[in-house]
Amino acid sequence: MNNAQALKIYAVLLVLLLIEVLAAAFSWPYRNGLIMSVAAGQFALLLLFYLGVYRHKGWVQLFGWVYLCWMLVMVVFILGELQTR
Amino acid sequence: MIRSDEQPAEQFAAWAQQREAARLGMWLFLASEVMMFGSLIMVAWFYRIEHADGVAEAVAGLHYGLATANTFMLLSSSLLMSLALIASEQMFSQPRPLLRVRRCLLGSAVLGLLFLTCKGIEYTLEYREGLLPGFSADSPLYLPSARLFMNLYFIATALHGVHVLVAVGLVLWLWARLKHLAPHQARTRIEMTTLYWHLVDAIWIVLFATLYLVGR
Description:
Chain A: Keywords: Membrane, Transmembrane, Transmembrane helix. The complex is a heterodimer. Chain A has three helices and no strands. Chain A has one domain. Chain A has helices at about 5-25, 30-50, 60-85. In chain A, about 25% of the residues are buried. The mean pLDDT of chain A is about 85. The termini of chain A are far apart. Classes of the chains: A mainly alpha, B mainly alpha. At the A-B interface, helix 1, helix 2 and helix 3 of A face helix 1, helix 3 and helix 6 of B.
């Protein structure tokens, strides 16, 4: 990653922050889903580009996927619990 | 002045091997951190599902403006850490990237300290409003589930604050010691510290949305 790419990622992260704050402040429709999707997007951007999962191989990539899968496991668990109640 | 005659630790044949080992160790540590904070976030979501009214009452009292400023500061500090890492990778090809690395590290540390200051202001406001658990017998929160959510909010954000404090300490130590480290050593330590900093930032992003924004 070079300086220009780091700045681009930063700009996208700020735009996503603005979207989630506006969604919460002005009660946009489906705002809760939108806010969590935006947060997941920010998390993925940090993981892929700043933490560098995209450019590493082997163990680093494996643990990067473990992170993502752990988030997925949590989502499936919560939604599964809700649906089967 | 940077010393260039440093050798890797004796159990390693080359710097690349030592860096790979450090990287693996750091990612294992970060995975354990994700598991811990992931569990707290999952509990928060269970509260939200089980006690939607109480959580809505608690969330309405949180200072999300300060939390938004904190998110902005952490994102900016992550950018500075990335720039420090990029500059540190040029240590061998350019004559004096050290000054730039140190400036970026100092900027990150200052933003981290500002984050902690903002968090302190937030806790002070919540203390005065009687929202913090254990500090007010006559909490304005009516529902017990709202107070339960505030307990979780306090544990999660305080634990995260401790992580930010550790990250700031690491960065300040690097900033002070950078001149005395060999380039390979400096690169490895900057990379490990950067990984930790980014993870602390990533955890805050999810905490911010989960605790402050959803259901507002």
